[in-house]
Amino acid sequence: MKFLAPLLLFISFSVFSQYDYAASNELPFGKLNPEAPPEVADYADLIGQCECKSVIRLDQTTWADTLSMLWTFKYIMNGMAVQDETLKTDGGFTGSIRQFIADSSRWYVHFFSHKSPTTTFPSWEGGKTENGDIVLFRDSKAPNGMEGDYRITFSDITNDGFNWAGEWVSKDRTIVYPTWRIFCDKLIDD
Fold first, then answer.
1. What domains lie within the chain, and their CATH numbers?
2. Percent of the chain whose predicted confidence (pLDDT) is above 70
């Protein structure tokens, strides 16, 4: 019986210590797990909470009014992946799970929205460029049926904020049609 108490203490410490990188009261945005692929740090400056201004294109010449939103990034899966969530003033809520798969050397991002629930989440893939942008692509046809991609770009990434762009691009990248812009300032850092 004397040995039972230390054994229980060891077991409980071992169980809880394996989640050192998960979000908690002390770490509201989690923490990068040192065992994660190094690329998981691509999102390090985005971890935290940002106040953002979002504007979408309505048609070829008109952009909608600016919409305010709160965009939160945090480490999940015990610091092995990244999750983000947006809370928009128009009542829209979206999010993504971002996981780097070392075998393909690419990020895979699965998107979800409360306004358009689906059993199969759309996904983008891509990575960090030499200039520090994070660029992701998903097959997407233009309204006229032309083959292309929807390209998402995180740019001007610093610990103070970032910019985001959504654009339809032709497969040869000669046609670029911007559809959405977001500009973010960091409120709460990791």
1. 4-189 (2.40.128.20)
2. 90
Q: How far is CA 149 from the centre of its chain?
A: 19
| Single pTM value for the model | 0.86
For residue 189 the two structure tokens come to: 């850092």
CB 80 within 8 A of CB 86: no
CA 112, 116, 122, 127 torsion-angle sign = negative
Residue-wise pLDDT tens digits, 81-136: 999 999 999 988 999 999 999 898 999 999 888 777 777 888 899 999 999 999 99
The dihedral formed by the CA atoms of 99, 103, 106 and 111, expressed in degrees to the nearest 10: -40
Among 79, 68, 114, smallest CA distance to 95 is for 114
Residue 124 to residue 111: CA distance in whole angstroms = 8
b/e map 132-149, b = 16+ CB within 10 Å: ebbbbbeeeeeeeeeebb
- Strand residue runs (E) in the chain: 48-56, 67-76, 81-88, 93-101, 106-113, 123-128, 134-139, 148-158, 161-170, 176-189
Q: Are 123 and 109 in contact (CB under 8 A)?
A: yes
Alpha-carbon span 92 to 86, nearest angstrom:
8
Q: Tokens for 133?
A: 């942008």
